[in-house]
Amino acid sequence: MVGSSVKSFNQDGLRRPTNKATALTVEQQVCIALRFYASGSFLQVIGDTLGYDKGTVSRVVSDVTDSLIDIKDDFVSWPTDVDSSNRIKCGFYRQSNFPNVFGCIDCTHVRIQAPSDDEPSYVNRKGYHSINVQAVCDFEDKVIEALTSPDVLNTIIPVLAEKISKTLTPLIEEQVKKCIAAHVEPIQKSIDEHDFSIRDHTVKICKLSIRMEQVDKRLKDNNKMLDVWDSELDALHKKTKDMESRLESQEQYSRRTSLRFHNIQVPVDGHGKILHPVNTDDKILSICNGQLGLNLSIDDISRSHVIGKAKYGKCQVIVRFMSNRTRDMVYTNKKYLKYNEDGVFITENLTKFRTDLTKKLSQMKYKNQIHAYWTADGRIFVKRAENSRKEQINSFEDISDIERDITSPTNQQQSDAEK
């Protein structure tokens, strides 16, 4: 194989002008150089491996390199005819589906030792000495154009040894294939079948990829629509919550002249049911004038009625007064009922939502989580401690904030310290 390959070399330049039997043949010199190109090892190591002196290896590598330079145009050449150009373009298109590609070009800096002549010219932008090398190859990785300076080639031969070896490999492989064609053909056939199967699967994968991209696009579009709908829903929820809050405030405002009297004695039957009608106006006037120290008449009451069921002959009575002023006088004097025998007490006529808030605050006060709570003009206030400032409660979130503060580590430490 080496013998057939060296025919392309300038054999006259490699033959030694001597009749000694120890002179190296052209084939031996090519083998030494190929060993050096392929391994990139030191000349001393190549000599020790093959049994030659270091100086001999150095001269052989230099001579073979010069012969490579002489014959490079036979292997490294720029296509000059239309057929060659089209073949390269078609090859690139088959490999990468990229039309009108004539070659792949690249450059690299090959590190060298600092030369003695014109040393600054060899310093690159990264601060070390190198030679800038450019090469162009076709779709079969064959070099079709490169720098031709002998100095450059002598410098980059160790680095490009593998590429040079690949350029020479097809020549050697041609001889090998002739010898083992019978063994290679079945393997090649199997490879071709696998290649066909791979291409078929590649097409299917591409189709599936396209479908996945379409599905992904639809999902993204749907997600965008969902985001828009979520924004609209959030806006509607916010608007609904605002309307509910305004409606609840309006409902509370409509009760501004009303009060609730608790534990009012009412007539009941043997089953504990209220015997209607109940003259609630007289009962309310009796409490207001007799126990609260007021001087009200029937004209001060717009309407009163029993609400809910009786328990132990007592129930709640809602009273709507004729004016807010009268209502405030009654609510202000409720303190005089604190120790009455019947347990009568007065509260504001709150909406269900605000009533639920006061129930929650009542539970917290029972657990000593707050100091006090009260209502005024439909508003709810709370004091966490005796000396703390009052806070207005508008929602269950406000109560949750108080509970979080109570259970926070800082407050727990303060509580433990007080205990």
End-to-end Cα distance: 101 Å
Query: What count of helical segments does DSSP give?
Result: 13
Helix content: 40-55%
**What are the segments in which pLDDT stays under 50 over at least 5 consecutive residues?**
1-5
Radius of gyration over C-alpha positions, nearest whole angstrom? 52 Å
Order of H and E elements: HHHHHHEEEHHEHEEHEHEEEHH
Structural class computed from helices and strand pairing:
alpha+beta
Percent of sequence in beta strands: 15-25%
Shape: rod-shaped
Subcellular location: Cytoplasm; Nucleus
Protein name: Putative nuclease HARBI1
Function: Transposase-derived protein that may have nuclease activity. Does not have transposase activity.
Family: Belongs to the HARBI1 family.
Please characterize this protein's 3D structure.
Belongs to the HARBI1 family. GO terms for molecular function: hydrolase activity; metal ion binding; nuclease activity. Residues 393-419 are annotated as: Disordered. This protein is of the alpha+beta class and 419 residues long. It contains 13 helices and ten strands. The chain has helices at 2-5, 11-14, 26-39, 43-50, 54-75, 82-96, 150-156, 161-254, 280-290, 324-332, 352-366, 396-407, 409-418, and strands at 104-111, 130-137, 143-146, 258-265, 301-311, 314-321, 345-348, 372-376, 379-383, 391-393. The strands form three sheets. Strands 5-6-4-7 form a four-stranded antiparallel sheet. Strands 1-2-3 form a three-stranded antiparallel sheet, with helices on one face. A three-stranded antiparallel sheet has the order 8-9-10, with helices on one face. Helix 3 (26-39) crosses helix 5 (54-75), helix 3 (26-39) runs parallel beside helix 8 (161-254) and helix 4 packs across helix 5 (54-75). Mean pLDDT is 83; it is low at 1-5.
